[in-house]
UniProtKB/TrEMBL annotation:
The keyword Phosphoprotein applies. This is Response regulator. Keywords: Phosphoprotein. Gene3D superfamilies: 3.40.50.2300. The modification 4-aspartylphosphate is found at residue 51. SUPFAM superfamilies: CheY-like. Residues 2-116 form the Response regulatory domain. InterPro entries: Bact_response_regulator, CheY-like_superfamily, Sig_transdc_resp-reg_receiver. Coiled coil: none annotated. It comes from Halobacteriovorax vibrionivorans. The keyword Phosphoprotein applies.
Amino acid sequence: MKFLFVEDEVELVELYQYMFDRIGLDYEVAYNGEEALEKVKNGQFDFIFSDIRMPKMNGIDFLKNLISEGLNFKKFVFVTAHQEVSLDEVKEMGAHDILYKPIRHQVFMDYIQDLQA
């Protein structure tokens, strides 16, 4: 399983990279929706975790572009500190789920493990 982690806060990315590396996960990082879209066009990801509020292209527009361009992914999960959208709304957009920050590290790792099952 390979996933893409899209987050604009560098400190958060570094924290999660440390956790991902410790348990040997296969992942790539993008810092905004535009960069993430290019990575998906040039690679294969099973799962995508994306922040919503980001510069250049937000997470909602990123998901819309993935779908409109017919790019493949198994599950798309929003990870956000803001409750601007509900679970029902993100599911209507084509996302699998939404996780709200702050997320305890073990909870996030367990969530990733469950996606792999």
